[in-house]
TrEMBL record:
Keyword annotations from UniProtKB, A to Z: Membrane, Transmembrane, Transmembrane helix
Residue ranges, annotated region (Disordered): 115-134
Domain of life assignment: Bacteria
Name this polypeptide is given: Uncharacterized protein
Length: 134
């Protein structure tokens, strides 16, 4: 039997994923590159997903921007979806500013106090006025 003769049970076609005689394995190399690319793409998608609440809050110039960022980071590091949902809700809705009316009242009271102190000085009774009252 010579080297060109095949075994009677061997097929005439050898699939491409069978390792060559020189040791190169095309399928192993392809799967390694494919796996690394898939892991990188999943990581990029994961980080992009977790940055959505911060992007929403930044675009709308949200007053609770720092709170949204903290919730998004907590969701990222704890893998707890509740923090991410809370960050999206905080970024999506504007809470009413209850401090603004209180600030306006405080400013009005403060301005009343400064107007009185800037007004005419109170009249001090002199000795002459005190003698007339007696």
């Amino acid at each position: 039997m010579s080297n060109t003769d095949l075994h009677p049970m061997a097929t005439g076609h050898i699939p491409s994923y069978v390792t060559q005689a020189d040791g190169s394995d095309f399928l192993l190399t392809f799967m390694f590159i494919f796996t690394v690319l898939v892991i990188v793409l999943i990581g990029v998608g994961y980080f992009t997903l977790h940055s959505i609440p911060e992007k929403l809050a930044h675009e709308s110039n949200h007053p609770q921007f720092q709170l949204v960022g903290i919730l998004a980071l907590l969701a990222l590091f704890t893998h707890n979806g509740l923090f991410w949902v809370a960050a999206v809700l905080v970024a999506g809705f504007q809470f009413p500013d209850v401090a603004a009316p209180l600030r306006a009242i405080a400013d009005a009271i403060r301005s009343l106090g400064t107007e009185r102190s800037e007004g005419p000085a109170p009249v001090q009774p002199t000795d002459h006025t005190a003698q007339q009252e007696q």
